[in-house]
Each structure stands twice: as structure tokens, then as C-alpha cells.
Amino acid sequence: MRCSNLALAALLSLSSAHASFLPSLLHHRNSGVHSGVSRRSIPHPAKRHSARGASTSSNGTNYVASTWYAGWHATDFPIEYISWEKYTSVTYAFAVTTADEAMVSLEGPDATLLPQFVTMAHQNNVSAGLSIGGWGGSLYFSNAVATATNRTAFVKAVTNLVSNYSLDAIDFDWEYPGHQGIGCNAISPNDTSNFLAFLQELRPALPPKFTLSAAVATTPFANSTGLPSADVSAFSKVLDYVAIMNYDVWGPFSPTVGPNAPLNDTCAPPAAQAGSAVSAVKAWTAAGFPASQIVLGVASYGHSYKVPSSAALSPSASGGAQTLVDNAQFDNKTVPAGDAWDAAGPDVCGVNQTFSGDVDFWGMISGGYLGEDGKALSGIQYKFDTCSQTPFVYNATSEIMVAYDDATSFAAKGQFIQSTGLRGFAMWEAGGDYDDILLDSIRTSLGMPTPPSSGSCDETDINIGVGVGVGVGVSA
Ligand SMILES: *[C@@H]1O[C@H](CO)[C@@H](O)[C@H](O)[C@H]1NC(C)=O
Ligand SMILES: *[C@@H]1O[C@H](CO)[C@@H](O)[C@H](O)[C@H]1NC(C)=O
Ligand SMILES: *[C@@H]1O[C@H](CO)[C@@H](O)[C@H](O)[C@H]1NC(C)=O
Ligand SMILES: *[C@@H]1O[C@H](CO)[C@@H](O)[C@H](O)[C@H]1NC(C)=O
Ligand SMILES: *[C@@H]1O[C@H](CO)[C@@H](O)[C@H](O)[C@H]1NC(C)=O
Ligand SMILES: *[C@@H]1O[C@H](CO)[C@@H](O)[C@H](O)[C@H]1NC(C)=O
Ligand SMILES: *[C@@H]1O[C@H](CO)[C@@H](O)[C@H](O)[C@H]1NC(C)=O
Ligand SMILES: *[C@@H]1O[C@H](CO)[C@@H](O)[C@H](O)[C@H]1NC(C)=O
Ligand SMILES: *[C@@H]1O[C@H](CO)[C@@H](O)[C@H](O)[C@H]1NC(C)=O
Ligand SMILES: *[C@@H]1O[C@H](CO)[C@@H](O)[C@H](O)[C@H]1NC(C)=O
């Protein structure tokens, strides 16, 4: 705790001047961020056989407690800061597809970081995964799986990575088969069936007990007409699980403000039913994918919107305190900058992107919305939406509203995972949390035991924390 506070103190001290050190990361940011999913692809909406680190709930269910580690945030959030003892698996993001299907690329510092990451995971008995793809890394999946010859070469590329880096897990984050994702990705009506044929060839080429997963949209993989496939059961024979990316359901691309990661939407007015954990699990299981092989993707970040106070606040019936309006109309010409990890610039397709407005959970605190206990500060309007079971905050002075997740919404998601018999959770991203407020909440809700202190908060780590703070200050 103490050392993660120090780490975060360094992060929180970053000002927006910090953005000047981000341009070198732009490629990665754009290749990594799962956002923009709904806007550009899926209409109207984005294992565990590991021998290591299994956690057992009171009734004997082995839950996956997973997170993605974003390599491009390693300067601010080095691998030492991961709460390893609280995860069963951690997935490094990303390796990217290339025009040569025989080659999956680790770019920038990733080739150096990945071996260190795997070593540290293994020291902690945690399954070490690598995610291939991401929003900006999925350009060539379609080509790589298109023909029998290409599939065989792509299988070899993946198994080479697995043996070279001693990986325990591979996560395919193809955004998305049969959909125009970021814009310049190759696409074919046969993507989903080709992907299946590829996985069927890959699985027997991997070591026994190897974990294969896919990060998926809230609707099942597209069929040849681009609609959700009616039957994806064959994928459950070759994948250990899918992680449903139940976030970016609403964002700056939506017509109004809405929950980033709704637990439920079937209780919302029809116009506000854009997807949720409830409807995503229903869609995947209806298409033959077992609930016991579904991991719920959860978000340690939210989306911010510029909302004039006339549109954000409504007087209460009793004439008392004002409350926040549901699905408020925001000013779509102004996307506010999010936290210090937000950046604008060209994406991998060469298209200029504005700020995303993303605010990590720690950014809610540095941004003056929440206190260090994760609760709304006085002077900030707060509302917990009972249908999506997620919170909203509003600063009437800056006129910024943020839809995000907190300890209460993470506990509700943990409850849902348990009651629905899902496989566990996977959080995007490890570095987004503050003092493990979100992680501890979902673990407790799942009945996962509080791990003994890792003992990692010794002088060495404190020195690393301070060192990073200084280093960032200098480069910013
Ligand atoms: C890892 O697992 C081994 C064997 O189960 C055990 O001896 C060791 O203490 C574990 N290490 C950690 C850091 O949990
Ligand atoms: C197979 O891969 C090659 C690159 O090695 C690519 O040029 C070709 O387009 C791919 N085939 C298909 C059908 O996409
Ligand atoms: C294998 O890993 C090493 C780093 O450990 C890297 O230098 C090398 O390029 C990798 N080779 C392949 C084929 O991935
Ligand atoms: C899709 O697969 C079918 C059946 O294998 C094939 O006839 C068709 O040419 C493929 N279409 C494309 C665009 O690759
Ligand atoms: C695609 O999926 C939709 C919805 O599940 C279904 O109505 C349609 O028949 C499917 N098309 C093909 C070609 O499988
Ligand atoms: C979702 O909403 C429906 C309709 O109100 C309700 O029946 C159901 O219990 C809710 N599920 C969860 C997990 O909140
Ligand atoms: C902003 O919203 C208006 C009306 O709601 C819409 O016509 C316009 O296309 C939107 N602009 C952008 C950039 O999304
Ligand atoms: C992106 O924005 C920069 C700075 O505003 C501008 O110089 C550049 O021409 C833009 N590029 C594209 C492709 O629009
Ligand atoms: C709201 O935003 C304003 C302007 O950025 C800032 O000065 C203020 O501290 C924030 N918080 C509250 C509670 O007003
Ligand atoms: C554990 O309990 C949940 C409900 O709380 C149930 O769905 C699941 O099937 C149980 N698992 C086992 C192995 O009994």
C-alpha cells in the first residue's frame, strides 16, 4: 500500500506538461487503447488452465483474476508496481500484427520489457500472457489467417514467440473480425471462419495447459454478413475463454453521455440500451459460448464530457439539491483532455485524433473529482445510476462530467460474475487503479482471499518510485 501510494504520488504530480513526453508513445497509445470501439465498428455498441496462481473461492470456483499491462505506460507504472499477488494472470499489451504473417512485432521498448515482465510474473507464480493486436495492432490479422499457407506461417510466428519468451498465455485482441476497426485494417467476410481455422491449427501446436484467450466485443464474432454469428460454440473448444470488453459502450462517439461500462442496460429506456455485461453475456451464451468460459472485462478508467450545466443538472422535485441528468446532452465539438495519459495525435492509419477524454481511476483523484478514498469530493455532484450500476460525477465549474467505475460498481460486477457463473474478470488496465481500490473491491466481492502483503514495499521499491517521479519530471 505504502509503496503504491508513493508510486501514485509520483503519477499524481504529473501536470499536463507531461504530455510533451507522450508523442513518442502515440503509436502505442493508439495501438493500445480499446476505446473508439463502438464508434467505428460494432453497430450500436468493442484459460484458464494455467498451472500458476490459481485462486479458489469458497465454493471451489477457480476465478481468473487478470489484467492487461500496457507496456507504453511502463515509465509511469513499471512492472514492479503491479499487485502481482492479487492476480492469477497478467497480460502484456501489445504485440502487433505486421504485413508479413510470419512476423508478430514487439515494438519500441516491448522487446526488452517483455522478458522482464515474464520473469517477474513467474517469480510471483502468475501466468504470463501476451496480447496480440489491440485497436491499432489489428491491421493484418485478416491477411494472416486468410489462407491455409498464411495460417501455417502465422501459427509458427505465434509458437516462436511463446517458446522464445516462455509465455504461459496468448490473448488475441483482434478488433474486430469482419468489422472495419480503426479504419485501415484489412477485412474479409470470412474473417471469423478463418480465425477459427487458425485457432484450430494453433491449439495443438502449443504446450499442454497453455492458455489461449480472445478479447472480444459485447456481441459474438461477426458472420459473413457482418452480423453477430448465431453459433460460436466451436471457439469454446479451442479458446480457454473470451474476455468481453464491456467498456467504451458509451463514449465521446455516442449521442449523449452514458455509462462507460454498464453492468445492465435491459432496465434502461430503449434509447439507452447500448450494451452491458448482462446483455453481452446473454448474447454470447445464446450463441453457444459457455458462461464458465466468459471473463468479464472491467475498466479502471472512465470517459469525460463537456456538458453545460443547463443540460447536466435538474432541480429536485422538492426544490432541494440539484441532481445529475441521465444521458445528458454533451457539447460534442469539445472533447476535454482526460488525465496525464491522454494524448492527441495521428493514429496508425495516419488520421489525426483529438484527446480521448479518458480519465483513469487515479486521474479521477488527481483531477479533483474523488478523494484518496475513491469517494466524490465535496463540491462535486455525484450520482450512482441504478440500472448500469455505475457512478457519474460532475464539476459545475469546469462543466465536465465523467462516467466511470468505482469500488461500488466493481463490487456489483463481482457479484454478477459469481451469480452468473462466469470465469472471472480482466481489468483494462493494471496501471489505471489507485491504491487497488477497484481491484480489492472486485476480489472481495468474488470471495477471493486478501493476499498477504507481498512485502514488495521495501526501500528498493520506494527508491524506484521516487526515481521514476524524478525521471518523468526531467523528461516532461
Ligand atoms: C510458488 O509456488 C511454489 C510451488 O507451489 C511455492 O513453493 C512458492 O512459495 C510459490 N511462490 C510464491 C511467490 O507464491
Ligand atoms: C497472405 O500473406 C501475404 C503476405 O505474406 C499477403 O500478401 C497476402 O495478401 C495474404 N493472403 C491473403 C488472402 O490475405
Ligand atoms: C527472442 O527473444 C529475444 C529477447 O529475449 C529477442 O532479442 C529476439 O529477437 C527474439 N526472437 C524472436 C524470433 O522472437
Ligand atoms: C470466403 O470463403 C469462401 C468459401 O471458402 C470462398 O469461396 C470465398 O472466395 C471466400 N471469400 C473471400 C473474400 O475470401
Ligand atoms: C448472420 O447472422 C445473422 C444473425 O445471427 C443471421 O440472421 C444470418 O442468417 C447470418 N448470415 C449468415 C450468412 O450466416
Ligand atoms: C437487469 O435488469 C433487468 C430488468 O430490470 C432485471 O430483471 C435484472 O435482474 C437486472 N440484472 C442485473 C444483474 O442487474
Ligand atoms: C454533434 O451532435 C449533432 C446533433 O446531435 C450532430 O448532428 C453532429 O453530427 C454531432 N457532431 C459530431 C462531431 O459528432
Ligand atoms: C494533423 O494535425 C497536425 C497539427 O494540427 C497538422 O499539421 C497535420 O497536417 C494533421 N494531419 C492530418 C493527416 O490531418
Ligand atoms: C472544478 O473545476 C474547477 C476548474 O477547473 C477547479 O478550479 C475546481 O477545483 C474543481 N473542483 C470543484 C469542487 O469545483
Ligand atoms: C459457485 O457458485 C456460483 C454461484 O454463486 C455457481 O454459479 C457456480 O456454479 C458454483 N461453482 C461450483 C464449482 O460449485
TrEMBL record:
Biased composition (Basic residues): 41-51
PROSITE patterns per record: GH18_2
GO terms for biological process, alphabetical: carbohydrate metabolic process; chitin catabolic process
GO molecular function, one term: chitinase activity
Signal peptide range in chain numbering: 1-19
Gene3D superfamilies in alphabetical order: Glycosidases (3.20.20.80)
Residue ranges of the region described as Disordered: 33-58
Top-level taxon of origin: Eukaryota
Gene source species: Botryobasidium botryosum (strain FD-172 SS1)
The keyword Nuclease is annotated on this UniProt entry: no
Domain GH18: 63-449
GO cellular component, one term: extracellular region
Database matches in Pfam families: Glyco_hydro_18 (PF00704)
Name the record gives this protein: Glycoside hydrolase family 18 protein
Keyword terms: Hydrolase, Signal
SMART domains linked to this entry: Glyco_18 (SM00636)
Alphabetized InterPro entries for the sequence: Chitinase_II/V-like_cat, GH, Glyco_hydro18_cat, Glycosyl_Hydrlase_18
